[in-house]
Amino acid sequence: MAELTRQNPWRTLAPGGRGAGVIAAAACRRGVATVLVRKGKIAELADRIGLCFGIALNNRPKRTHNNGVTFLGVGPGKWLAMSEQPGFVADLAARLEGVASVVEQSDALAILELSGPALSATLEKGFQIDFGSFAIDDCAVTSVNHLGATIWKTHDDSFEIAVSRSIVGSFLHWLSASVAAGGLAVKSGQG
Amino acid sequence: MTGGYRLGGGIIDRARTLRFSFDGATMDGFAGDTLASALIANGTRLVGRSFKYHRPRGIFSAGPEEPNALVELRCGARREPNTKATTVELYDGLSAQSQNRWPSLRFDLRAVHQLAAPLLVAGFYYKTFMWPAAMWEKLYEPAIRRSAGLGRLSGEPDPDLYEKACAFCDLLVIGGGPAGLSAALAAGRAGARVILVDEDFMLGGRLLSETLEVDGMPGVAWARQADIELAALPNVRILRRTTVFGVYDGEYGAIERVADHLPEPAPFTPRQRLWKFVARESLLVSGAIERPIVFGGNDRPGVMLASAVRSYVNRFAASPGRRVVVFTSSDDGWRTAADLDRAGVCVAAVIDPRLEVAAEVRALANDIPVHLGARVIDGHGGQTLRAVEFIDAGGARKTLRADVLAVSGGWNPNIALATHLGGKGEWSPRYSTFLASNAPKTMSIAGAAAGNLTLAAALGDGARCGAAAATRLGFHPGQLQAYRASDEAFAVTPIWHVAGARNKAFVDLQNDVTDSDIAVSVSEGFRSVEHLKRYTTLGMATDQGKTSNLNGLAIMAELTGQAIAQAGITRARSPQVPVAIGAFAGLNTGQHFKPTRLTSAHDWATGQGASFVEAGQWLRAQWFARPGETDWLQSVEREVIAARTTVGICDVSTLGKIALSGPDVGAFLDRIYVNTFSTLAVGKVRYGVMLREDGFVMDDGTTARLAPDNYLLSTTTANAAKVMEHLEFCHQVLWPELDVQMVSVTEQWAQFAVSGPHSRSLLQRLFGAAADLSDAAFPYMACGEFCLGRIRARLFRISFSGERAYEIAVPAGFGNALARELMAAGEDLSVMPYGIEALSVMRIEKGHVAGNELNGQTVARDLGLGRMMSTKKDFVGRIMAGRPALVDPRRPTLVGLKPLDPKDRLRNGAHLMAPGAIPGPDADEGYITSTAFSPSLGHWIGLGLLTRGPERLGARIRVYDPIRSGDSEAEIVSPIFLDPEGGKLRG
User: Fold this and answer.
1) Terminal CA-to-CA distance of chain A, rounded, Å?
2) pLDDT of residue A191 exceeding 80
3) Less Cβ crowding at N or C end of chain B, within 10 Å?
4) Could you tell me if B155 and B239 are in contact, meaning their C-beta atoms sit under 8 angstroms apart?
5) Vertex B853 angle, CA B847 and B855, to 5°
6) Whole-number pLDDT of residue B149
7) From A175, which residue of chain B is nearest by alpha-carbon distance?
8) Distance (Å, whole) CA B17 – CA B5
9) Can you say how many angstroms the Cα of residue B485 is from the centroid of all Cα atoms in its chain?
10) Can you point out the beta strands (E) in B625-696?
11) Chain centre distance of CA B5
């Protein structure tokens, strides 16, 4: 029987420009799922997630996370759930049986962690978001240079961005052109 | 003095000499110069030729309102035509050329146009080049474009990068002059997020060009101090070399000239950046623009705006000439005389049409001869001004020798941006100009732009408005800062036009519109300023008539006996300064014009020699050429034969895939599709057709039931997003009571069609014991999930090709590896990759409809799918699909077409009509939608939509294709050319 190897969507991510104005790290080991609440089950879903993961689910564009599991509010009654725990998506689907639909998206989304002193100057060249009032754990389903993207703030000076796997090349064209004056450094992925 | 015209003082950096060239002549300037000021300092007066008459033109202003001094900047691929020398920051190595002249600037043969001037009046083109009509495109327009016009583009790809950015703020301050600075300080100190935008490379606006003081220090020093304080505030961002060019709903467009002041951009740096500002409020502090006076010869090089003369003398330490006459109807013009006198430049006279001026204004002239009640009637000279002719208070004509005539007709507040959202100027009798009315709701106006024309008034107004805006935005500004500054005199008695000149009197210098053109326009019956503008082209040039509009409409008002207030003013539109198209494109040029989506097996397909074609944003493999193949048709033929005789694989990952979950999915799909899905068994796939609300077909595809409450719906590649949107609309708006969840999983799965007699063998090898793919265990239209090594793969037994076929799906990360594995596993089965051309050939052979037939104009019956429409349930589009016109049996319906002569080629778009019919709309009975050369049949075949098609099988039809000289006959046949019983796909 065939044994297939996974291809990293960020395999063409490479340093560019001079310096490390922006530091990028590919997050390739995450299990990702779309969680969609079943009709009228929001309270049960929140209870279930609180019980299973110790997370207070937020039905707003916010990140909530605990112990390596993250929920991002990406629409009313809709979240992206992420974790590096092996078998996370299957486990999540089992835990949320009857209260939510869980759809595997681990290969659909390419996630990049970005940080660095030139990051805000870079982001404003593609996103049309007021990052000045974008707090840690804020999340937005938006676009970057006409490419669909989801962005959330993880720390004071760092964000994570998820884009569809098929547009990684176009995204990297924007990123490398927008960041190059300050320099793009690449570090090994964090998961 | 450099070149004899460099003065002392100024705010140029004399320690940094910059070498530049103009029309090949090398010159020196200093850092802080503009190209215009450096040319003036070098004694260059003749800078360009006019648009229509090719008259010699010099430098008229010192800013973006410049109508004359347009040059080609740089050379090679970076050549940039129509650049205003007054806004070009000098850099070392700058190369500029004059434009619109031949063979040279000094000797321009096209100046002969002046001899034909009596013919070249407004409307000349419209009246003269009407006959014969065919000559307009062939001769007249090309000839006119060659002889008129401005600079030339390089014709080469722009080597530079342009980018876009978006910034948010509480208050956008548009203008960095005294009012802008005081406003930004007030709001910035209060804590508001402020963006201060200024088009100059130094903040200060008119302060840089004046000798006025603020708080006891020179205005320049105060501006620098304000700059430093603002730069230190973390909540204030300063953007120099940036012009706000347009106001939109809550947003502002601006262009930042990031590297225009450099020979070429630094590595990784854009040439220009297009900004979008989202501001809660804005403050327009764009100052005012001095207006000229219309008199004969007012376009001679040396005739300049008086304030511009002051800029060159005070800021750039460059004297525009040796002997200056000042012609002013405003107090402000007298200050030019005073500053020139102070700088040691000879002022021959001040000529003021007013009979009286205030004593303190009169004192500004010191010992300079003054002619009150006088008016300049003509400027004389050739390529430079030599003399000024005026009529004194007694009516006597007098002439003064002069090489510069500084003209001041008062100031026009620069309100263009305030009118972009529909506001218009309102006439102010006090200021004899238009002030903004109905400005956008979130825009305030301050400083000279609001009519506060003195320094003290502008500073105070700016601070007040900045603080008021901050307060409205929820901040708490401290006590308003009072600035000490002079309240200089600014009285004006407007004089728009001096009649009786011998020379041409220009209203719009850039478009060569004269006072006579205005008169012609009025005599032709044009009474509206908007009509005047379009008939004469007044104000339609790259300067948007910044120095001409008011004079033009004032002349029109006078000629039509209206007050200026009645005549009104044209509305300005964005962009208020020219913006390079490249800046609007930003990074999205060439292959990056739009996003490109690559399937996960793109690398594999590239390695297989695929030629790709755009399918929406996707790149799809079209065919895979093999050595020796010289024609795409050869490749496609080989691929079709392989898929029909052995096994082929095709990447179908781009088809839309939507996961639907929940207990009500079956009911939901029953309402979406014309056919029933609630009865679909788990592990089965069904083909479905969905309609739009209007009854026409929206899309088709298969839906698989993977689990009791888990379906996977597929769409065509083109309609993936549209179908997703449709489903969400239906759920959220029409049937929110249904417990259904849906999400696109197109990106999650890489999917390959495996087609051909050996497809099962190949897949069985791949899965080994993990799957039983026998027809009994996995029949046609079955689906299931199987282990493939450590991952789970989905398998669907469906066929677009008509062969035994499967579609295998794996998580997209494994798509590239799966494609390679399929090729390896099928090597001895003669496996062959095939592209979408072969896919298309095979679907035409099988009569499957696709995008060409699902064109938004067909109903299910047209496509032979009418019987799929359930009569036992309701579904979207059911009622509208029953409209008489949509069930008319005469509607063109899907048929197959086979050329009578097998050598004939059928082509998409060819019209179908009865043999012998005279081609025309009445004879038209349909058209061909899809064609292919069928390797299986050995001739071209086609699908078409033909009136009463299914009733005419076996009949002949004329295939008429006049565009490609096609005229042949075909036999009407069933659209299913191969295996009509479907035995192959069932095994």
Assistant:
1) 28
2) no
3) N
4) no
5) 165
6) 62
7) B587
8) 16
9) 44
10) 647-651, 656-661, 684-691
11) 42
The helix (H) or strand (E) run that includes residue B472 is helix B455-472
The answer to which of A51-60, A152-161, B482-491 has the lowest mean pLDDT is B482-491
Nearest CA to B680 out of B698, B706, B715 is that of B706
Give dist(CA B521, CA B898) in Å, integer.
Answer: 65
DSSP annotation of B36: H
DSSP secondary structure letter of residue B525: T
Q: How far apart are CA A20 and CA B330, in angstroms?
A: 57
Tokens in use for B570? 């044209």
Containing H/E element for B959? strand B956-961
Q: How many CA atoms lie within 13 A of B386 on its CB side?
A: 4
Q: In the structure encoding, which two tokens stand for residue B874, read together?
A: 């309701």
Contact B224, B238 (CB under 8 A): no
The answer to whether B168 faces chain A, any CB pair under 8 Å, is: yes
The one-character DSSP state at B314 is I
From the CA atom positions of chain A, what is the Rg in Å? 17
Q: What is the pTM of this model?
A: 0.94
Question: Roughly how many angstroms between the first and final C-alpha of chain B, as a whole number?
Answer: 96
Query: What's the 3-state SS for B171-194?
Result: EEEECCCHHHHHHHHHHHHCCCCE
Rounded average pLDDT per 10-residue block, chain B, 987 residues: 79 98 98 98 95 93 96 94 96 95 83 76 74 81 73 90 97 98 98 98 97 96 98 98 95 97 94 98 98 97 98 98 97 97 97 96 96 98 96 97 98 95 90 92 97 96 98 96 90 93 95 94 91 91 91 94 89 91 95 96 98 96 97 97 98 98 98 98 98 98 97 97 98 98 98 98 96 97 97 97 97 98 97 98 97 96 96 97 96 98 96 95 97 97 97 97 94 97 88
Contact status of B742 with chain A (Cβ, < 8 Å): yes
Q: Which residue has the tokens 């799957």?
A: B771
Residue A132 CA to residue B234 CA, distance in Å, equals: 12
Between vectors from CA B457 to CA B456 and to CA B461, what angle results, nearest 5°?
A: 120
Angstrom distance (rounded) from CA B773 to CA B136: 71
Angle ∠(B345,B350,B353) on CA atoms, nearest 5: 160
CA distances from A20 to A117, B262, B921 (A): 8, 25, 67
Q: How far is CA A32 from the centre of its chain?
A: 9
Let me know: does B773 contact B755? Beta carbons within 8 Å: no
Q: How far apart are CA B379 and CA B406, in angstroms?
A: 11
How many C-beta atoms surround the C-beta of residue B975 within 10 A?
27
Instruction: Please tell me which of the candidates A1, A5, A165 has its beta carbon nearest to residue B817.
Output: A5
What tokens does B248 get?
């939109």
Q: What is the DSSP string of B415-470?
A: -GGGGTTS-EEEEETTTTEEEEES--TTEEE-GGGGT--SHHHHHHHHHHHHHHHH
pLDDT of A1: 64
Q: Do A4 and B748 touch (CB under 8 A)?
A: no
Q: Is B815 close to A127, i.e. CB distance below 8 A?
A: no
Say if residue B64 is preceded by a cis peptide, omega within 30 of 0.
no
Question: What is the chain B residue with the closest CA to A17?
Answer: B268
pLDDT at B374: 98
CB atoms within 10 A of CB B363: 11
pLDDT value, residue A84:
96
Angstroms from A75 CA to nearest CA on chain B: 11
Euclidean distance between CA atoms B578 and B576, whole angstroms = 7
A149: amino acid identity, one letter: A
Nearest CA in chain A to B586: A145
φ, ψ (nearest 5 deg) of residue B913: -155, 165
Which residue of B163, B168, B598 is in closest CB contact with A178? B163
Q: What is the dihedral of CA B602, B604, B609, B612, to 10 degrees?
A: -10
Query: Which residue is associated with the tokens 């009571």?
Result: B737
Q: To which residue do tokens 């799918």 refer?
A: B865
